[in-house]
């Protein structure tokens, strides 16, 4: 069987990881049929995921690893997960950014995807504590200037907070907190490590939790951008309750059980790719 060339390795591994998490384990022969790749390719992918600590290999397949609440994967590991879901979420969330508004983009790989969708929204002021998010806007500005036309009309004004860099390339700590405290945002777009009814929004990084608290306090409207795998996950430190959130934008992978549970909670649920329910945005 020839390998499926339509999927990049990181995309294929993200699909494998999602399947393992969703089913609680999977066999190699099941993955070869599902992905239309060779047995050797699947075993290489499982080896790579096992080295990253994302799965545990067992005879004939793999099972998920139960992560400790203080475990914080790096940006590169997280960026390979749920790629299509993050793209769908980013497109839906971008419609909530009004031209000329002041927005905050907290760190994370979903915020990174959203930043790419916001490049054509005119006259934004963007405050972020993510090095990766800032680079998206700076890169677009450099590309425009390189064409000899000068800065593009309506290009975003970007403010990068200072702070201490985390494994996910987010700036946190007293310097970031002081910068955010002095500002006021129309909308905060917030990626999270985990969401649950009991713990609310949480992260494994204590300093990041404090910085996120300041983001939430400084925003008129809080929009959480999180794929379905974040539901039921609890990190070391909670930084906001669900009644502090106006909207949760997620993807179609959210289970029927989670949707039913979320229907009893204050935030509006927007499932990317599905019609809006409740009040129009």
Features:
single chain, 281 residues, alpha/beta, 7-stranded parallel beta sheet, 3-stranded antiparallel beta sheet, 15 strands, globular, disordered N terminus
Please provide a written account of the structure.
The chain is α/β, with parallel strands linked by helices and 281 residues long. The chain has ten helices and 15 strands. A seven-stranded parallel sheet has the order 6-5-4-9-12-14-15, sandwiched between helices. Strands 1-3-2 form a three-stranded antiparallel sheet. The chain starts with 8 loop residues before the first helix and ends in a 10-residue tail after the last strand.
Instruction: Give the terminus-to-terminus CA distance.
Output: 48 Å
Overall radius of gyration: 19 Å
Q: Largest beta sheet: what is the strand line-up? A: 6-5-4-9-12-14-15
Structural class: alpha/beta
* Beta-strand segment tally: 15
Q: For the residues shown, what is the average pLDDT?
A: 85
- SSE ordering: HEHHEEHHEHEHEEEHEEEHEEEHE
Low-confidence stretches: 1-6
Given the C-alpha coordinates, what overall shape results?
Answer: globular
